[in-house]
TrEMBL record:
This is Reticulon. The keyword Membrane applies. The gene is Rtn2_1. It is found in: Endoplasmic reticulum membrane. Keywords: Endoplasmic reticulum, Membrane, Transmembrane, Transmembrane helix. PANTHER family: RETICULON, RETICULON-LIKE PROTEIN. GO terms for biological process: brain development; endoplasmic reticulum tubular network formation; neuron differentiation. Pfam families: Reticulon. The chain crosses the membrane at residues 20-53, 135-156. It comes from Polypterus senegalus (Senegal bichir).
Amino acid sequence: MTSQGVSELIYWKDAKWTGFIFTGLVVALITLSQISIISIASNLSLTILCMTISARLYMKILKALKKSDGTNPFQTYLDVDISLTQEQTQKFVDRIILMVTSAMTELRRLFLVDSFIDSIKFTVLMYLLTYIGAVFNGLTLVIIAVICVFSIPLMYRQHQAQIDQYVGLVTSQIGNIREKFRAKIPSAKAKEQ
């Protein structure tokens, strides 16, 4: 899926398709929060197997009754080549190795305090995440994120003027508070002079 396709999806360009994707994601995530992933995977597999075995059995019965040639109804899917070329495999492996290496490098830098400020920021983030984890389940956060992705961009596009006006007011108030705060700190006054 391209970035344009994702943009069309979250801005509800095709309402039926976006509604289908959004509803499917939310229902799947809510289901995952109520039932274990193992149960969902096994029940889904059983459902698919029951349908495919029934279709295959139906074609066998038609062949026995000489009303069909009895070919596998899924033969076109069985004939599709899903193997990867060596170049594609190497490209994927290189990309995964690069991501893992950069993540490990960054985590090493943070945990072993290469930069004191960055490690403190990371510590504060992890501390805040403990509170978020105590209040929310990880799956609940994913559900909230999916709902936000499908609603906030559209809401912003529809009410952009009002939102920008209020954001401007909040930004100016934060700037005023920041200036008052800087004026009261003695070290900030000394640096300005």
